[in-house]
Amino acid sequence: MNTLFKSSQKLQAMLRFAVITVAASLGSTSLGQQGDYFQPLNEKMMPGFAADTLARVRQYDPSWLQPVRVELPTAGTVSVYSATPEPNAVLASPAQFSVNAGHIYRLRIADMPEFPNVEVYPSIEILDRMHPPDGRAGDYPIPVILTEADIREAIEGHMVTRIVYLEQPQLAAMLDPLRREIPQSVNPADNALQEADLLGRPMIIVRIGGRTPSGDYMPYLYYGSGGGFDLGGSVPVHTGVVKLSDKREQKSAVASR
């Protein structure tokens, strides 16, 4: 029994997430390119494109919903949108919910004591999913940590892009044996998604900017691509929105008959 318990602890310790940030200035430290590896996707593409492409290649199970945990500097509320101007839920931070890999979702961050009367609308693009033990998906959420500096950058009109990736255990142990933070900011001209791919498995693209909804005529795509949503119950919430790629596939199937 003791041996099994220690093995379980070791497994959880190996699941270490890290973040690569696209710095706002061209003078940022850049991680060096390694070898001849080339990642055709990058974080500068139209939001949602990378996730949609990976989902079609990897054929994710659409019934699987990946837990995500959003943390604010101290307190506040997190609203989650999926292709509709009305939120699927409004949660207190830290907020945990489950969403589909292959989709993009909009968040509204508000009620922060550090930023009274301020609302920020970051987006999360779900690139991949975890493969947890049966019945324990909620124990392995992908962390999205929004710092006070991130929110201040957005308020000042800057864009902060972060790639959250699951580290390769062997590589993490080699680069960071004492578990210190490694500087991981890249030049905006570099491919941050490629850098994250070299160090582990990219899970989410987080984009934190100053854009806010401008009224009733905002395109629905601003609010996400229509993926499923769940708060942890047995019945996921679906918006009924069909992605453009799904429509193209349906037309091709009809034409081939």
Strand order of the largest sheet: 4-3-6-7-11-9-1-10
Main sheet properties: 8 strands, mixed
Give the mean pLDDT: 77
| Structural domain tally | 1
Distance between the termini: 58 Å
Q: Which blocks of ≥5 consecutive residues have pLDDT under 50?
A: 1-14, 25-35, 239-257
Structural class: alpha+beta
Based on Cα principal axes, name the global outline: globular
What is the number of strand segments? 12
Beta fraction: 15-25%
What is the tally of helical segments?
6
**Which series of helices and strands comes N to C?**
HEHEEEEEEEHEHEHEEH
Overall description:
There is one protein chain. It is built from six helices and twelve strands. The chain has an eight-stranded mixed sheet with strand order 4-3-6-7-11-9-1-10. Strands 8-2-5-12 form a four-stranded mixed sheet, with no helix packed on it. The chain has one domain. It has 257 residues and is α+β, with helices and mostly antiparallel strands. Helix content is 23%, strand content 24%.
Brief summary of the model shown:
By secondary structure, the protein is an alpha+beta fold. The chain has six helices and twelve strands. The strands form two sheets. It has an eight-stranded mixed sheet. Strands 8-2-5-12 form a four-stranded mixed sheet, with no helix packed on it.
Fold blueprint:
Elements: H1 2-14, E1 17-22, H2 49-58, E2 66-71, E3 77-81, E4 89-92, E5 95-99, E6 104-110, E7 123-126, E8 142-145, H3 148-155, E9 160-167, H4 169-175, E10 185-186, H5 192-199, E11 200-208, E12 229-230, H6 244-255
Parallel strand pairs: 1-10, 2-8
Antiparallel strand pairs: 1-9, 2-5, 3-4, 3-6, 5-12, 6-7, 7-11, 9-11
